[in-house]
Amino acid sequence: MGDDEIPIELTEQDRWGGWVMARLDDGWCAALDRKTMLCTIYEIRPMICGEYQAGDSDCMQQRLLHHID
After folding, report:
1. Would you tell me how many other CB atoms lie within 10 Å of the CB of residue 30?
2. What angle do CA 31, 34, 39 make, to 5 degrees?
3. To bridge 12 with a disulfide, which of 8, 21, 22, 63 should be the other Cys (CB 3.0-4.6 Å)?
4. What residue ranges do the domains of the chain occupy?
5. Which H or E run includes 10?
6. Which residues, including other chains, have CB under 8 Å from residue 10's CB and lie 6 or more apart?
7. Among residues 6, 4, 1, 31, which one has the least CA distance to residue 18?
8. Which of 51, 53, 44, 52 is nearest to 3 (CA)?
9. Partners of 23 in the beta sheet?
10. 3-state DSSP call for residue 8?
C-alpha cells in the first residue's frame, strides 16, 4: 500500500511480505461497515481503492462471488 496511511489494525502482511488491507472471516475488507456496506476510512482509503471502478469487470466478478445484486 506504499505511502498510504491506513490504521495498522486494518492491515496485514501478505505471503510475499507486502502490506494489504486485512480481510475478516467473511472475506470482506476489515474497513467495510457490514451494516451500511460503506468504507469506514473512505477519506484515507488506500490509493488502489480510489482507483477501483464500481461496475467494471472485477467489480462484477466480486459481486457474483459474494452474491450481491
Report:
1. 16
2. 35
3. 22
4. 8-65
5. none
6. 21, 22, 30, 31, 41
7. 1
8. 44
9. 29
10. helix
Residue with cell 468504507: 39
What's residue 63's pLDDT?
78
Cell readout for 33 is 461497515
The amino acid at residue 42 is Y
Return d(Cα 15, Cα 63) in angstroms, integer. 25
pTM of the model: 0.69
- Position 44, amino acid: I
Q: Which of 31, 28, 27, 25 is nearest to 11 (CA)?
A: 31
* Residue-wise DSSP of 12-60: EE-TTS-EEE-B-TTSSBTTEETTTTEETTGGG--HHHHH--TTSHHHH
Q: Which three cell numbers stand for residue 44?
A: 484515507
